[in-house]
What we know:
By secondary structure, the protein is mainly alpha-helical. It contains 3 helices and no strands. The chain has helices spanning 3-28, 33-58, 66-79. The protein is extended.
Amino acid sequence: MQGNVLLALAAALLWGGGDFSGGMGVKTVGGTIGGALRIVLLSHLTSFSVLLGIAWLRGDVFPHGAVLAWGLAAVLRVDSR
């Protein structure tokens, strides 16, 4: 199999697994909006922690200067809509 096919299959598996486990998590906490928001927050914090860990292990540098400023400006612009 080609690399693209393997990446597509891995993405589909992970996306489906995340969708299923998120739905089951919301059911477990009672199916309320507050429970759903807690599950979403927990999943985002977990994935961000994994992302930071991978970046740290790779030795990637934290963006600074103009790159960081443009990134923050983009986030603020999207959130202000």
